[in-house]
């Protein structure tokens, strides 16, 4: 049986683990564990409030995020293969061939730029669904911090191409942890809905 208290703990701790993904060596493991915990927390909330779109949006965001990782990996691998084709190893040292033409460098640059743009497109698309997820949770739980975290996540994804976006995403994850820990054990009814309910019964 799922509960909001479980979602609070899973989401809060998971968000903090994602923040620690910047730690060398073990950071990537903490990041993966954190993302899984957040996904489970969102699934619990989705089931409790009876809104499947919340979990479906988050699942779509995860799939698009995996797409970004896949495209990035292919780009790096393609760039390495391209560079290796431009030279050879001599005495255990890699040396560029003397007949490397400007066209070789142009092809490498085009590959890298196309890969970066594709990764950025996947990241932004993923962030759009992340924001939809947290906007819905913000509305259902009446915790505005979710809305703020989702917006910052989207801004961070848009700025990721210049590097500073990843710092914005880390800030978003910190706010997300605060948002999860701010949840009550029962869904809060937004104040506007409370007023409408009182008016309807009077």
Mind sketching the topology for me?
Blueprint: H1 4-19, H2 27-49, H3 52-84, E1 87-90, E2 93-96, H4 102-141, H5 144-159, H6 164-181, H7 191-201
Antiparallel strand pairs: 1-2
Helix pairs in contact: 1-2, 1-6, 2-3, 3-4, 4-5, 5-6
Describe the structure.
With 202 residues, the chain is mostly helical. It has a domain at 4-64 and 123-201. The protein has 7 helices and 2 strands; from the N terminus they run H-H-H-E-E-H-H-H-H. It has helices at 4-19, 27-49, 52-84, 102-141, 144-159, 164-181, 191-201, and strands at residues 87-90, 93-96. The chain has a two-stranded antiparallel sheet. The relative contact order is 0.13.
Brief overview, please?
This protein is mainly α. The protein contains 7 helices and 2 strands, in the order H-H-H-E-E-H-H-H-H. Strands 1-2 form a two-stranded antiparallel sheet.
Label this structure with key terms.
elongated; 4% strand; mainly alpha; 2 strands; 202 residues
Quaternary organization: single chain
How do the SSEs run, as a string of H and E? HHHEEHHHH
The strand order across the widest sheet is: 1-2
Beta-strand share of residues: under 5%
Shape: elongated
Runs in which pLDDT lies below 50 for 5 or more consecutive residues are 192-202
Query: How many separate helices?
Result: 7
Helix content: over 70%
- The span between the termini is 36 Å
Q: Give the strand tally.
A: 2
Query: What does the main sheet amount to?
Result: 2 strands, antiparallel
User: Rg to the nearest angstrom?
Assistant: 22 Å
Structural class: mainly alpha
Q: What average pLDDT do the residues reach?
A: 86
